[in-house]
């Protein structure tokens, strides 16, 4: 499976500009014969949270239509990072998964809201996990701060996920945590991690990419690149089963000792 990680800058509070950028990136990655194209967190608006009343995508309609059309046109799967959406009178940080036929196969609202960026003031928490099929492979997807909750990633792995997609806007000052946590999640869950972070600046933060694809043994397939652009990695998916047979972590769990 060839993965395209779109490590993009995001125009703060300018959805139209970001939608145009997304279209160009999908076309470029499709020409490179990517199977799956992955975007960062909140790419439609950036963290312009106090402007969501005018910026958020109502019912996700613009995003879903665009991603569906482009996935079908280019015959690619898209992990749509996440976008700011509005449903009713509530706002969410939402990930859409689209298959190569243009079908929306999953939608996920960020479960853990990050108070240091005021998400809890403006957004609502998601209430369900995100496990889906892509090219016959069971995958999972969470968003940014969700990474700091190992039990949440493990929940997806226990439900069959062999690849975890993690879009983010992870600030430069904590980028060391980003790499350490991603590698830990890959090793402890014996799965591939595909993590896509943005680059550039918004009014309050600086972002320096370091998008990563990590194999089940923890080795970095791509990492530490700080420029805007598309990063590619090939996943050998049989490696997941090989690692899980070598060290049977899931079989050796002592659930009788764990507190819920």
From TrEMBL:
Residue ranges occupied by any CN hydrolase domain in the UniProt entry: 1-237
Organism: Peribacillus huizhouensis
InterPro entries linked: C-N_Hydrolase, C-N_Hydrolase_sf, UPF0012_CS
Family listed: Belongs to the carbon-nitrogen hydrolase superfamily. NIT1/NIT2 family.
Protein name stated in the entry: Amidohydrolase
């Amino acid at each position: 499976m060839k993965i395209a990680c779109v490590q993009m800058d995001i125009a703060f509070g300018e959805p139209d500009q970001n939608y145009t950028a997304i279209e160009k990136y999908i076309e470029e990655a499709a020409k490179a014969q990517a199977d799956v194209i992955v975007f960062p967190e909140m790419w439609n608006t950036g963290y312009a949270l106090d402007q969501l009343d005018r910026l958020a995508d109502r019912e996700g309609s613009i995003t879903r239509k665009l991603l569906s059309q482009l996935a079908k046109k280019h015959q690619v799967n898209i992990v749509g990072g996440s976008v700011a959406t509005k449903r009713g009178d509530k706002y969410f940080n939402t990930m859409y998964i689209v298959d190569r036929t243009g079908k929306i196969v999953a939608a996920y609202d960020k479960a853990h809201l990050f108070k240091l960026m005021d998400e809890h003031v403006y957004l609502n928490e998601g209430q369900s996990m995100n496990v889906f099929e892509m090219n016959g492979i069971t995958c999972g997807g969470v968003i940014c701060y969700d990474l700091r909750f190992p039990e949440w990633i493990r929940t997806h792995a226990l439900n069959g996920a062999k690849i975890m997609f993690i879009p983010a806007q992870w600030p430069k000052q904590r980028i060391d945590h980003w790499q350490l946590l991603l590698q830990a999640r890959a090793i402890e869950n014996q799965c591939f991690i595909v993590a896509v972070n943005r680059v550039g600046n918004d009014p309050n933060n600086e972002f320096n990419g370091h998008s990563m694809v990590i194999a089940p043994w923890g080795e970095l397939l791509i990492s530490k690149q700080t420029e805007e652009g598309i990063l590619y990695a090939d996943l050998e998916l049989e490696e997941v089963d090989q690692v899980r047979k070598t060290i049977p972590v899931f079989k050796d769990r002592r659930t009788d000792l764990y507190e819920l």
